[in-house]
Structures are given as C-alpha cells and as structure tokens.
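Let's inspect a concrete specimen:
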Amino acid sequence: MVHKALPRHIGFIPDGNRRWAQSRGMPREAGYAFGIRPGLELFELCDRQGIQEVSVYGFTQDSTRRATVQTESFRAACDAFAPGGAEP
C-alpha cells in the first residue's frame, strides 16, 4: 500500500520491556536495555520515511514509583537511547 501523505510528527511510547524480560526468566529491570535497539530501529525507519519529528515518551510518574533498581535501569536505557548516550 502506498501512502500519499505521511504525518509530520510521530510519537511513540516504549512499553512491555519488563514483561518481555520476565517472560524470558530475566529480572524485570533487564528488559529496558533490550528495548533500546528496537526503539532506535523505529527512529531510523521514521527518518528514512521522511517523518520530520519524532517524540519518544519514556519516563512517566509511574516509572518513579518502581523499585529503585528498575528506575535506575530505565534511566540508563533512556540515556543510551538519546543521541550520544552510553549503553547501560
């Protein structure tokens, strides 16, 4: 299917990383690092398609109520996702 018009802006919310890790026998906080690559691939796909703006909604109030190890792992993943960030 060919689209004649693409949106100028797309926002996405990474979700399910904790459940993904838990379903694979890993601690919940391990899932955040595994979500970085798919997020970057989505970002690059948007760029190739000519999407002018992309927003990633990551850290919410709910995130601050999680166990400290999860919050720290999530922050590290957000830093790694941002341009120039270091991998967790």
Q: What stands out?
A: The chain has one domain: 11-81. The chain is about 50% helix and 10% strand. Residues 11-81 form one domain. The mean pLDDT is 83.
